[in-house]
Amino acid sequence: MSTNDIRIGIIGAGVMGTDHATLLHESVKGATVSLIADMDAPKAAALAASVGANSLEDGIALINSSDVDAVIVASADMTHRDLVLAAIQANKPVLCEKPLATTAEQARDIVLAEDTTAGAGKLVSVGFMRRFDPTCVELHDAVVAKPHGETLLVHSISRGTNSGPGSTTRSALSNSAIHEIDYLPWLVGSPIAEVTWQAARQTKNASGLQDPQLFNLISANGVVSNCELFLNARYGHDVRFEVVFEEGTMQTVEPVNTAINANQAQGTTLGTDWRRRWRTAYRIELQNWVDGIRTGSPSPAFATARDGLASLLVVDALVASSENGGALTPVTQVADYLA
Length: 339
Ligand SMILES: NC(=O)c1ccc[n+]([C@@H]2O[C@H](COP(=O)([O-])OP(=O)(O)OC[C@H]3O[C@@H](n4cnc5c(N)ncnc54)[C@H](O)[C@@H]3O)[C@@H](O)[C@H]2O)c1
Hints:
This protein is an alpha/beta fold. Helix content is 37%, strand content 23%. The protein contains 11 helices and 15 strands. The strands form 3 sheets. A 7-stranded mixed beta sheet has the order 12-11-7-10-9-8-15, covered by helices on one side. A 6-stranded parallel beta sheet has the order 3-2-1-4-5-6, with helices on both faces. A two-stranded antiparallel ribbon has the order 13-14. Helix 4 runs parallel beside helix 5. The longest helix has 20 residues. The model has no long low-confidence stretch (mean pLDDT 96). The structure holds nicotinamide-adenine-dinucleotide. The site of nicotinamide-adenine-dinucleotide has 25 residues, from helix 1.
């Protein structure tokens, strides 16, 4: 640890908290993990010991600790609003795992609170790491530079092995598809204006939610992103995007190191753990966040609190469409919602 390091406190010692703590400790320059909070005290203590930090149970106490300069919220979705509000009140930069909150109303509380501070627009970042993934960024660069012409439409596939316990059609959108709901308007450079939703034929492997779901995100600039969300696809974690330009297409390719040749076939492995697919994105996201705190200028690639709110307003429109026979449904825009 250097004395100039940004001291990071992490709330939540689960899957994502552990991943962020480990990456910060091993791979990010200019930061030290100083404190870990989890309501499960032994879990917090074990993670803290692995990165040379201290631990406690209470997230609010972590935020207000003089040993913490900046906060990562990696606890359950329903805790995000109150913890992010406390970080704003303490005037400390906070990287909140997605989603920013569980409802648009909660996200609005965060936007309005941040607006009252001197750090308005700079304190809160949302952990939408596709914006930092090299393959996703390359697509974005091509959309901006137009080497193959204008963007006409986008195909998005997001599949996983299992939905978590208690998943619903809405929570699949607000917890999982929210990644695409944030990335796609950023990719095409235009907010989502309207949506349509459709139930695909239901898989036998899911109950309590519609799975797979199909939906179209129609951006204000006319680009349609056609999305499949299939949480119980079983075979692996498989997220892909393809952009159709006027004169060519471009698609993300799963990062691979090796190919297997056997049994008259050639192929690569597809993991079941999303952390493998997005490891580089998480590392770049964390390094950018730390660098932004140091310089006082957050990377413009970061999703702000307003972006977090925008994504939840799109979820609301998708749910409304799903309850209304898949009708074309307008999305409430952030400025209108806050007015
Ligand atoms: N960016 C991504 O790719 C990605 C992937 C998975 C999960 N997530 C998000 O990260 C967050 C954490 O997910 P996870 O998979 O690590 O969950 P997890 O259940 O593995 O861990 C959450 C931890 O938070 C602790 N916790 C809950 N409430 C708390 C509170 N009030 N104070 C202190 N600790 C508390 C729990 O004890 C648990 O240890 C969620 O918001 C989830 O949506 C993001």
